[in-house]
Amino acid sequence: MESIFQYQSESSDTETYEIEDVQGTTAKVEPTSTQPKRKASTDETVCITSKCSTPTPYFTVDKNRRAKDQTSKEIKGYVSKRARLQLNNKNLEIQNENGSTASEVSNESQLSITKLLSLPSRIRSALDNKHESINIERSSSIPRRQIISLPKEHTKGVNSLLWCGSFGQVLASASMDCTVRIWDIFRSKKCVQVIKHDGAVKDIRWSINFNNLLSGGYDKIAKLSDVETGTTIQTFPHPQIVTALRYHPTQPNIFVSGMIQDGIRSWDLRTNKVIKETRKFMGSVNDIEFFPNGNNILTCSDYVVRNASDKNIMVWEIDSMTAISNQIYQEAFSCTALRFHPFRKHFVAQSNGNYIAIFGSEKPWKLDKRKRFEGHLVNGHPIRCNFSPEPDQGRFLASGDANGSIFFYEWSTSKIVKTIEDAHLGACVDVCWHPLLNGIVASCGWDGKVALWGVNTLSF
């Protein structure tokens, strides 16, 4: 049964509204549109018939009129720039298909679209010049082919290579055949001097004046030799195998040696005696690097225990030989080589996890977890790496590989920019940039081969 709420005014010209009570029933009411409303008197009758004893009516506007009002005041929706451009393109295509003659309008629209989607000419030209300069620099700095193959005079694998800094034509190589060979690269392309040891030679270092060469290895002796005559100047006996050698960057009469078990020692060439040594060291010293200020040294070892290598990379104070930090690298891999960036506050470590890790060279020597150089293989070999010198300013990093290849990485992107495959038959263990000539690299491997790589073939 319907509930009805009726209200009648004196005028017959009325508009009809619907009245809806709480129960959902409706009633039509015709209020006055021309005369003002008046209060209902007590004599007027209001009929309410409902199932509920006390209904509570409320008013709602007619849905049809609401829709009509909304249609008359319709607001346009947001259209993105891309949608507008697509719509303009469609309109232009339709006009072209219909044979429209409004070519000027279409040209203007097309020009406006091109301006929106393209860069300004000055910015585009600057970017093009930048890309061209980058390509030119890369092509002139990264070796592409073998330019010199030295005679294979080493009968066993070669462990280390080192250019003579001020004399760019001289190269030294340390081998497992108990010899150190001095090569005249660009003139005779032959070995001009041989320094002999009683055991395999592990590492070599040029002196500050580049007249003498310091070498050490499995005969437990560090030997200082005259390069011109090949005679021995001094010997420094060690209790264990000598694995690494480094000269002090500011004091030319002091050098540091690392051993296979008994840690690190600092020596004075003037007295031929030990200055300081570490009392306790874990594992074999794989590499040593001096900090640029010369106050501290950085070492890496093969010490790994219980899936942790918290003592793998350590910082030592040179004066007291006490450890400053041993929590630098905590991955479960040992490291084979360390290199400081020549122009940035970073150093890298060649990891047996088949990547090169990056660290800050300032305390707390934090590991960069977002960036590393990977793509080559180490697989337990003593693979080394080196930064490119001036004018590249350390822009490229060269690394050997367990399969005999040479990898070149770019510092800023950590991506591989060049790979020389099958450079050596065995593992390529060391790669050394030429200190003066841009884009020339020397490499050695366990096949006993020493080779030079460059951009173009050299003619002398």
TrEMBL record:
Ranges annotated as biased composition (Acidic residues): 12-21
Q: Which residues form the Translation initiation factor beta propellor-like domain?
A: 188-320
Q: Which InterPro entries match?
A: TIF_beta_prop-like, WD40/YVTN_repeat-like_dom_sf, WD40_repeat_CS, WD40_repeat_dom_sf, WD40_rpt, WD_repeat_protein
UniProt key word Repeat:
yes
Q: Which residues form a coiled coil?
A: none
Q: Which domain of life is it from?
A: Eukaryota
Which PANTHER family does the entry mention? TRANSDUCIN/WD40 REPEAT-LIKE SUPERFAMILY PROTEIN, WD REPEAT-CONTAINING PROTEIN 25
This protein's name: WD40 repeat-like protein
